[in-house]
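queue> holo job accepted (flavin-adenine dinucleotide)
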Amino acid sequence: MTFTLARHPAVVVPRRVALAERTVLAPGFVRLRLVESSPGELAGFDAPGSGDHFRMVVALDAQGQPAGASSTYTAVAWQVEAEPRWVDLDVVLHDDQDDAVGEPAAEPRAGVARWAASAPIGAPAVIAGPKGSVLMTGRPERALLAGDDTAVPALRRYLGMLGAGTRGDLLLETRHDPRALGLEVPAGVELSILPPVPHDPGAAITAALTDRPRPLPAPDADAGADGHDVFVFVCAEQSVVAPARAMLARWGIPVEQAVVKGYWKR
Ligand SMILES: Cc1cc2nc3c(=O)[nH]c(=O)nc-3n(C[C@H](O)[C@H](O)[C@H](O)COP(=O)(O)OP(=O)(O)OC[C@H]3O[C@@H](n4cnc5c(N)ncnc54)[C@H](O)[C@@H]3O)c2cc1C
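queue> job finished
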């Protein structure tokens, strides 16, 4: 089995929304439901790629225009064909004292995380995006998926897209119970929980990628087949990007046929 990834750009549409629901999935991890602030705002929203994301702006000026704090979030689920139209996202409530590797802060620092933790129901925001989708054709022989809490929404969607027959590894740098985060790991995927290294986010994933051997091709693999056999997704704190790219180079996988991204910077 082989796959290819293709990137499809999309027109970015700003959409006015309002906070409708907040559900605590785990300490320091909330799901927000955003509804359209007027009929049609969310019409046409789509995020077909498993890692598709949008910017959310939570500081608006008196005219309701985006005016301040904004961050990037993965689309978890959405309903836009019927009313009420909504989009769900999951937000990690980090604080800047402990790099999100100690105990969750009672009060997240200012910014989108604080808004996610404490904005009143009805609070306005604007979302813009996705600005493109990464879509997979075919299926990989094996997958190596690695991420921290901020990547859980994308990991969930990748696991769902790859399906029950997926074989490979999931490296999760987290202090949460993955079941509380809604991660369903197929039987063929080996889950490794990597305890975060205090004050060194990304270090646990980096250690797991360094010198990691490439999965062996399947015995019946067609060496002449088009496409790639191993799908790699590594998204976490920025420091994981260089070791993940070094691993791709060792494994002979082109960077554009993998998803490797710094989701945030310490
Ligand atoms: C493609 C993509 C998809 C993403 N999807 C999600 C998602 O679905 N859910 C999600 O929660 N995040 C996601 N992120 C990460 C999120 O955009 C960042 O964590 C963002 O910095 C949070 O914004 P903020 O306003 O809270 O903090 P910022 O104003 O950006 O940063 C302020 C301070 O907080 C620190 N900080 C930021 N994020 C973290 C963190 N996670 N842990 C510890 N300290 C942090 C920064 O180092 C900085 O010192 C995604 C990022 C990308 C690029």
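queue> The longest strand covers residues 14-26.
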